[in-house]
Amino acid sequence: MSLLDDIQALRTAATEALGGINTADALEAWRIKYLGAKGMVKSTMQRLREAPREEKPALGQAANQLKIALTEAFEAQKDKLGAAGAKAKTSSVKLDVTLPGNRPRIGHSHIISQTVSEICEICARMGFEVAYGPEVEDEHHNFIALNIPDHHPARDPLDNFYLYPGAMLRSQTSTVQIRVMENTQPPVRIIAPGRVYRPDTVDATHSFMFHQVEGLYVDEGVTMSDLKTTLDQFCKAYFGPEVATRFRPSFFPFTEPSAEIDVLFHYDDGSTRWIELGGCGMVDPNVLRSVNYDPEKYTGFAFGLGIERMVMRRHNIPDIRYLFESDVRFLHQF
Ligand code: FA5
Questions:
Q1: Which of ligand 1's atoms lies nearest the C-alpha of 279?
Q2: Distance from residue 54's CA to the centre of ligand 1 (Å)
Q3: What values do phi and psi take at 149, rounded to 5?
Q4: Which of 50, 62, 218, 292: disulfide with 188, CB 3.0–4.6 Å?
Q5: What pLDDT is stored for residue 157 in this prediction?
Q6: Structurally, how many domains does the chain consist of?
Q7: Is the CB of 290 inside a 6 Å radius of any atom of ligand 1?
Q8: Are 195 and 315 in the same domain?
């Protein structure tokens, strides 16, 4: 066989061998065998020296083409293997479908809203319907119909959020008593939860916006003992049967007699303190008259409790401000 035939045969053999290669190690071995310093291309080139002079140009050209062709084929195969290698690496990342997923952080209602729902449920069991009234009120519903005269300190502009003359943010949910009685004939048995506003100095138990739940029961023959029993049962249902409550004589222009109901707080350091939960009393005859109820025929009781205070007592929250700071680490506990 002539050298030219050998060159052709080497090209065919090397190309075929390269086509079957699919690992980096085999490719490197191929490179050393054919294109290496002591490889077959090199040794073929060395044989050129022995060729007859007139054949040398053609043989040299064929040998050079062999080297170029094999080098290019080698590079192409290397690229192909590189791409396949990267792909192999990706597919080796295993997906474990049994791993727990990333749990999305699902929100829930604020503890105050949860408590309003619970209060409504407890009171529904005692026959109370839920009523609502506007947060922007007029003086008639916030004061006048509630027997709070012009000169009364509760109407002081510095103690209320007046919006413009005659309109204000309601300072108590007692407004809803009037709105319900204006539109309904006795018997009336409602509760009215909602936000109220007062420019009080903020401290551990006071906020300028807070929630109250109003209660009103008007019928023939309603007495103070109905009021005490209802509030006592309510407190036991919400706080638990062991809760300690007490009634203190008090004054409200729209109830007579009036009282305040306190619950005992147990602090973490072991100390206890009575905290005022709300006001209550027998509906004043003047209020009944303002809504055209006959005070000779009907009597009633009313109460207004601070919802934040209830939440604080139940969950041992020492400061009302935690409830409004919107810190999800705190709120997610409830
Ligand atoms: C009243 O608002 C009366 N309307 C309650 C009432 C209704 C009496 C029906 C008789 C008949 P008082 O101002 O005391 O009452 O407020 C009631 C409760 O709201 C308080 O006992 C307290 O629990 C809560 N409260 C009052 N001010 C604040 C405040 N700044 N921050 C948080 N809670 C408050």
A1: 8
A2: 119
A3: -70, 170
A4: 218
A5: 87
A6: 2
A7: no
A8: yes
pTM: 0.72
Say whether both 157 and 280 belong to one domain: yes
Q: How far is CA 89 from the centre of its chain?
A: 40
pLDDT score, position 90:
60
Q: In what order do the strands lie in the sheet with 167-169?
A: 136-138, 167-169, 162-164
Ligand 1 atom nearest to CA at 260 = 21
Which residues form the domain of 221? 111-331
- pLDDT band, very low/low/confident/very high, at 267 (cuts 50, 70, 90): confident
Q: Is 198 in the pocket of ligand 1 (CB under 6 A)?
A: yes
156 inside domain: yes
Atom of ligand 1 nearest to the CA of 177: 9
Mutate to test the pocket of ligand 1, among 172, 196, 314 (most ligand atoms within 8 A of CB): 172
Residue 257 DSSP SS3: strand
Are residues 45 and 8 part of one domain? yes
Same domain membership, residue 227 and residue 151: yes
Give the atom of ligand 1 at the shortest distance from the alpha carbon of 309: 23
Do 190 and 291 lie in a common domain? yes
Alpha-carbon distance of 291 to 334, in angstroms, equals 41
281 lines ligand 1 (CB under 6 A): yes
Cβ–Cβ < 8 Å for 262, 119 = no
Ranges 11-25, 71-85, 144-158: which has the least confidence: 71-85
Last residue of a domain, one of 58, 92, 126: 92
Decide if 258 contacts 280 (C-beta within 8 A): yes
